[in-house]
Amino acid sequence: MHSFPRFPALAAAFTLTLTAGAPRADAFCGFYVAKADTKLFNKASQVVLARQNNATVLTMVNDYEGDPKEFALVVPVPTFLEREQIHVTEKKVIDHLDAYTSPRLVEYFDDDPCLMRMLKSMPAPASAGRADLAKDERAKSLGVTIEATYTVGEYDILILSAKESDGLETWLNENGYKIPAGASDVIGSYLKQKMRFFVAKVNLGEKAKLGVKTLRPLQIAFESPKFMLPIRLGTVNADGPQELFIYTLSSRGRVETTNYRTVKLPSDVEVPLYVKGEFGAFYRAMFNQQVQKENMRVVFQEYAWDMGWCDPCAADPLSAEELRELGVFWQNDSATGPAPRRPAPTGAQNVYVTRLHLRYDRDHFPEDLVFQETGDRQNFQGRYILRHPWTGPSDCDAAKEYRKSLAKRQREEARNLANLTGWNFDDIARKMDLSAVEAAAESGLDTKWWRKLWTRN
Fold first, then answer.
1. Exposure of 322 by Cβ count < 10 A (0-12 exposed, 13-18 middle, 19+ buried)?
2. For each successive 10 residues of the chain (457 residues), what is the average pLDDT?
3. I need a surface site. Which of 92, 179, 299, 378 has the fewest CB within 10 A?
4. Where are the chain's structural domains?
C-alpha cells in the first residue's frame, strides 16, 4: 500500500500528489508564553506566496515521509518555467516564518489592589536536461508536450502542457503516476485555462550526492496577473478535510481571498490560567469550533503585521536574507519587477506578512483560492490572555472589591473558554475551582486559607 506524499502547502493544499511506481492590536504589557504552530494539526500543508505586481514566488513545503521512490508531485502553473525559475530552499526558513506568525498565549500579573497601582509593563546547481526520445514521441501522440526537463537539487522536474485531459491522464498513468478517480474534470478545467503542469520526482542519485535526508521545499518564480492558489487537485485523492497554512509576503499590505470570506480568528480573549498547560489542545478545539461555526466555508486570518517588528514576539522577525530566500525581490530595489538576487541590507523593510489558515475539502471549497492585496496595514494577531490574580497580602477595602471582581472575571474567563472551544462549562469551572473563588468573594476573605493561620487578632 502506497503512502501519498504531501507538500503541506501543495499536496494538502493545491497539488495532486501521486505515487510514482504505484481591531488594531496596540502594544501591551505582558509577555508571550506559548505559540500554536502548524505541528498542532495533522495533514497540515504550508505555502509561502511572495507577491508584488504580477510577480509571484511560490514556496511549497514538503513533509513527505516514506520511500522517496514513491514521491511525486503535480502542480498546475500559469506559465512556462525556465530552469532559473525553479529553486530548492531549506525548511528552517519556513519554520521561522511559522513561529513568527503563530497565534500566541500571553500573560499579565495583577498588582496589589491596596496600592492601586497601574498595571506594569513587563519585558516582555547546474541543470541537466535529459530528453527521453521514446517518451517524447509517445507524449506527442497523446497531445502532451514535454516543454522542459530540469534537475533542481534532489528533484527531477518536468514542465508539461496538453491538449486534452484524457491524453495527459494516459501519459501520467503510463509513466507511473497513479491518477486517482475523479481527477479528469479538474485537470480539464486547468487545461481550459491554458495552465501547464509542474511535475517533480525525486532523483535518488542527486539526493545521495547532496546528502539530503528529508526532501526540501521547492520554489517557483513566475509572472501572471492571476493571484491564486490551485487547491482542487489536492482534494481529489484526499481521505478527509485538510489543513492549509498560507503565508503571504507583500509590499502593500494585508492579503485576503476574494472568492471566499476571509474572517479574523477570535483574538484578545482572556482564558483561565490552566490553559497555559493545555495550549495545544485549546487551540485545536478553538479552531475546530470556529470551522464548525462557519460551516467550513471561510479562510481564517491568524496574523497580519509589518515584518519589521512584533509585540509580543513569538520569534524574531525574519532577516532580509531570509525574506529574500522566500522571494522578497523588491526590498530596497527601485525597479518594479523582479531584481537580480543580491545580498540585502540587514533588517526587514516594506514587507507585510499575512498568515491565513483554512480547513477544506472538495464539497466546501469547490474553487481554487483567489487573492487580492489590500492597502490595509493594521496589525492583527491571534492572541489569548492569561491574567494572574494578586496573591500577596491585601486587607484593605479595595482588596475586598478586587476579590469580588476577580470571581466575576474568572467566571467570564470560563465562559470565554467554553464559547471558544465548545468544552463543557461545568468541567472548566471545576478545573478552575471556581466555586472556592466565588465563596471567598462572598465572604470578603482572602482566598488563601493559610494567610491568617498563625496571625493573632
1. buried
2. 38 37 34 66 86 94 74 86 93 94 89 59 39 70 90 90 87 78 82 90 87 87 93 78 94 95 95 92 95 96 90 86 94 47 47 95 92 94 90 73 84 95 95 81 58 56
3. 92
4. 10-384, 392-443
